[in-house]
Amino acid sequence: MFADDILILTADSAVYRFSESTKIPLDKVSLWAENHRLKINPLKSVYTVFTKKLTRRPQILFQQSNIKFSSEIKCLGIVIDNKLSRIPHLNYLKEKSLKLQNKLIRFCRATWDVKPEVLAGIPPLDLSIKFHQEKFRLIKLKTDILINNELLIANNVHVPPPWVPPWRGRRMFWNIEQSNVNMNNESNFNYYTDGSKIDGRTGCGIALFRGEEEIKTLTIRLNNDSSVFMAEACAIKIALLEAQSLNDSTIPVHIFTDSMSVLKSLEAVNDRFQIITDIKTVSENLNCSFHWEKAHVGTHGNERADILAKEATYKYDVDVFLGTPRSLINLKIRNQILNSWQFRWINSRESRFTFGLFPDVDLKRCFGDFFINQILTGHGCFPSHQGRFFGKNCNCSVILMKVLSHTIFMDVLFMRILGGVIFLQILLLWVFWILSRVVIQEKV
């Protein structure tokens, strides 16, 4: 059943009565389709009867055509049979899972142990599945997990705000630096905010200025899992709450921050963080404006907020707990995958030649060339590989025959081939240089 299908359910005391009881609903459907300029194909329409024992099938007409009888109907991905045995649905799931399994078999065909993942920079599939399963248990099932000997509490994970349609979203616009602001006007409340993270400790600082005079400062220590982005946003939120405590919505409030990412989040319609939603909610009842201030250019207010944010990281007690962002969870899971992958690569008995070239796993590594991978893995037209798998002989000694580096750097035949290739490349470059010079002279 798809979005353009129509499902009609009817019940009667006897099977033969369905021919009459379905006539009126089908006529209404036909009239509705005609009014909306739609056509219903009777040849694709089917019906089924749910009964213990079906002695004879009813004749159901639609637009002067008989509707075919079917022992099963697929509705919203569920196969319903007329005996309600659920066996056709299980067979459907079995066939669907077998197709998925066959695709996985193609991906997981016979390969050279752990080398392909190391050369391609792709973590093993089983490790990725294992740790993404842990992430699912933490975020969706609200179960505490252990990652890198660190306990992650499910209740501390940051929960994004509920989704809001774009037409109901709110956008907060911002200005560049001190545009449209009279910094000498003492009636303005200018809040400079900043966030900092030092040695795994997070804090934010706020400095309030009226004119050129510093009126108030705040240092807030956040939980260690908080990011710099959350610290910057928390500083803006607390500054707005301080302005709200003045109980005067007419006072001009100006927020200065050097975090472009927070200002871009305020400008966006959809909020990914609850703290951004809170900032928009608090600023609705204030006469406030947001300004981006370039960092570390000598602005007194910005430098003062930066010093306060760094001082906040040295406080012992946590003032505000913002939870663990999902970005940090993804980072910890990624590091755990890399550590497990590295442990498997070090302790593997195979691929020691490739291990000598690449002792560390790396996600940025990507070798996909067929001929280069023969050299990197030792599986190619080399005496060591040919003698091991095909019993071919080499003119070199038995000890040197087993070493691929000897084939590359010391084998006479290989060096002749390599020298011929290099000579051919030099010759082609020389010819290209001569032709380019001729073309340039003709143009001149």
UniProtKB/TrEMBL annotation:
GO function terms (MF aspect): nucleic acid binding; RNA-DNA hybrid ribonuclease activity
Signal peptide as annotated in the record: none
UniProt xrefs under SUPFAM superfamilies: Ribonuclease H-like
Superkingdom of the organism of origin: Eukaryota
Signal keyword on record: no
Organism listed in the record: Araneus ventricosus (Orbweaver spider)
InterPro entries, per database record: RNaseH-like_sf (IPR012337), RNaseH_domain (IPR002156), RNaseH_sf (IPR036397)
Keywords: Membrane, Transmembrane, Transmembrane helix
Matching PROSITE patterns: RNASE_H_1
Segments passing through the bilayer: 413-435
CDD domains: Rnase_HI_RT_non_LTR
Record-given protein name: RNase H type-1 domain-containing protein
RNase H type-1 domain location: 185-314
